[in-house]
Amino acid sequence: MEAKKRAATIAALCMLLIMSVPSQQRVSTMSFCSCYQQCYPGCRHSTPWWLCNVNCAGNCDVGDREDSLAACIMVCSTDSVCGPVVAPAYAQGVADCIAECNKRWGQ
């Protein structure tokens, strides 16, 4: 239960952060969302949800390493990327997802 609350809190903070950025960066966020929403459904047919989150976040983010890590963690923390914040239904996968983000883009 605590993992769901933590994930929902992280997702809410990420959405607040996105909303506070200047409009030019919001366009970048919209491009990310468009790319992500095209990537995810095709991936989900053969891959666990959390690995699709990591793969699509990495494929769609064009920022630096820190931006990629932040985008990856954001998509791990919600079931509704680029939409209303919804805590992940499978809380056990959140830790695996974030660990994979850190493995690919962490320090």
Task: Describe this structure as you would to a colleague.
Residues 1-23 form the signal peptide. This protein is mainly α. It has one domain. Helices cover 74% and strands 0% of the residues. The protein is globular. The protein starts with a helix and ends with a helix.
Summarize, please.
Keywords: Signal. The chain has 107 residues and is mainly alpha-helical.
Beta-strand level of the residues, as a percent range?
under 5%
First-to-last CA distance: 29 Å
Count of folded domains: 1
How many beta-strand elements? 0
Rg, Å, rounded: 13 Å
Structural class: mainly alpha
- SSE order, as H and E? HHHHH
Summarize model confidence as the mean pLDDT.
73
Contiguous uncertain segments of 5+ residues: 21-27
| Helix percentage | over 70%
The largest β sheet comes out as: none
Gross morphology: globular
By DSSP (H or I, 4+ residues per run), the number of helices equals 5
Keywords: Signal
Organism: Triticum aestivum
Protein name: Acidic protein
Signal peptide: 1-23
